[in-house]
Amino acid sequence: MSAQTPESDDELLLRLQSGDEQAFVTLYRRRQGALYRFVLHMSGSATVAEDVIQEVFLALIREECGYDAERGSLSGYLFGLARKLVLRHLERGRSDVALDTEGDDSNVPALAVHDDPLADMTRRESIESVRRAVQVLPRRYREVVVLCDLEELDYRDAALVLGCPIGTVRSRLHRARGLLLDKLLQERVKKPAIATLKPERCVI
Questions:
Q1: What is the architecture of the domain spanning 9-92?
Q2: What pTM was computed for the model?
Q3: What are the structural domain ranges in the chain?
């Protein structure tokens, strides 16, 4: 006997819009974690992440939520909504983290998927190290690496979330991976030096 195929996001949304509370719970449990991680990486604040996720799912249950299946997936729509909300929070509070003076990235060649030193390194690094490195990327690079590498959105959905061409997503991702790799390497180089520093024994 074959297992029942899980309902798609669109099927759950239709049930939700018909007043099915269980459909909302299922959809929330399926998508909340990835959206929360995205907002947390973008904002650096658990409070902002919680507020944004609440706003995203409240928007989803409104009669006219604005989702159009012909433009992309529901997951991509939710990420796009979360991005707009987190940018609003960032504009109210803190400015972008440093390095947002990078040049135009439209002509940077895309990095081949099979030639990705970042993926190899991040598998060996602690989640906390990667999170710290992602946090100091410029916003346009931070959001693309979180969407494509950490949350594994495809380029089409990422382009819809960011409101830019797929080619721009690829070039930004290439640049972001390079910056992130540099930061992880710098952190790795610092660790042995820190580990060898021991307090001098005080002789009384």
A1: Orthogonal Bundle (1.10)
A2: 0.65
A3: 9-92, 117-195
